[in-house]
């Protein structure tokens, strides 16, 4: 096993490693210290953070330029050499990488990753692939050093969400070729938590195992968090908030934990705090909510450079309150680098600093949608998360729903399929009136509402597909 001379992510102090003395630079936070995984970088003044990011950006750019044909060609065609980047602002000159470009190089030599690979093939220890929800899956190689970086990035987020050595963490999820929760598992161990993998069990067995072991924390998709609570109540007579000991839940995979009404449903069902996180196979775990729940996600500015760009002009947006798409660099990932990757996620910077004291910036309300998904219906721009926010805010509706957009002649038509909870059937008319009013108010659109029998709409464990745009095929 080679440990590359590329200085790893921990060139700033890591709390986990116990390397407390960093040449006298370690600040003391007498009573706050335990809030942060890395008390030094998480509270660096913004100017220092930008300096650190610039230094690391130059390093990964040079690394990729020297070792990967894919990156060298990309930069040479743009007339750019790594030495040309001298300031933070100049980073915007570096060409972006699109997912489609990664797709083109795959299944070529060195097989199966292609020529963005920056290390000898024998140094790759991890295979993952993207889920392919937006096209052919992309393979993702990582070295062991990269894998330690994955665990480090998740350690920041779990620590920020209050995970400590005293936690017993249950993961109701079967790990496989996708990265989901693998890194959460290792990071929880890195922090010192006890981890219970609940992979092959069915939902009822998972709930009983949580009860038996008095697990204190859990990681799952929002859809599954709600589905588990339903199963617990209806099949086992267990009220998770009353009968189970889960007090924090980390969500991933869908935006639900950043949608206030969905978050509230989960928190009430479990009597737990629910925290969001954001990441992607080809990027890493780049953002997280902290225990202060500031209404947004911190971006991890120690390990990533997150930029928000104007969707049309590409101008970098530094000011709060203006939406753009996220372009992101994993500053320390070496096998298949992620440099100025066009994530297509849409977000905006928050105006307010976070009460937790972290200086890592916050994206307001989390990722509000994907540049691909934000679509025009009847001439109105709409993000699928806006529909979810409304459905989940109406009391009496079940958690599942589906929105289908079609074209009738030249006109867009949107149908919303919902379910009413059996015990709320008596309030059917009032529920539907409230739903229609809220939809019109929050999304500026009129919908055909279809009420489906309770439990008849599809249930998802991962990556729910509740928004279907059929216009392209009609
Ligand atoms: Zn915070």
Which class best fits the helix and strand makeup?
alpha/beta
User: What is Rg?
Assistant: 23 Å
Task: Report the sheet-strand fraction.
Answer: 15-25%
Q: State the total count of DSSP E strands.
A: 22
End-to-end Cα distance, whole Å, is: 54 Å
Bound molecules: zinc ion
Oligomer: single chain
Helix proportion range:
25-40%
Largest sheet report: 5 strands, parallel
Roughly what is the average pLDDT, rounded to an integer?
A: 89
Instruction: Give the helix tally.
Output: 11
Enumerate the spans where pLDDT stays under 50 for 5 or more consecutive residues: 8-30
Strand order of the largest sheet: 4-3-5-6-7
Shape: globular
How would you explain this protein's 3D organization?
With 474 residues, this protein is of the alpha/beta class. It contains 11 helices and 22 strands. The chain has helices at 46-67, 69-77, 99-105, 144-160, 182-191, 203-213, 222-236, 240-243, 260-270, 384-393, 428-443; strands at 124-129, 139-143, 168-171, 194-197, 217-220, 248-251, 273-275, 277-280, 284-288, 296-299, 304-309, 316-317, 324-330, 341-347, 362-364, 369-370, 375-377, 380-382, 397-408, 411-420, 448-452, 467-469. Strands 4-3-5-6-7 form a 5-stranded parallel sheet, sandwiched between helices. A 5-stranded antiparallel sheet has the order 12-11-13-14-16, with no helix packed on it. Helix 1 (46-67) packs across helix 2 (69-77), helix 4 (144-160) packs across helix 5 and helix 9 (260-270) packs across helix 10 (384-393). The longest helix is centred in the first third of the chain and has 22 residues, at 46-67. The radius of gyration is 23 Å and the shape is globular.
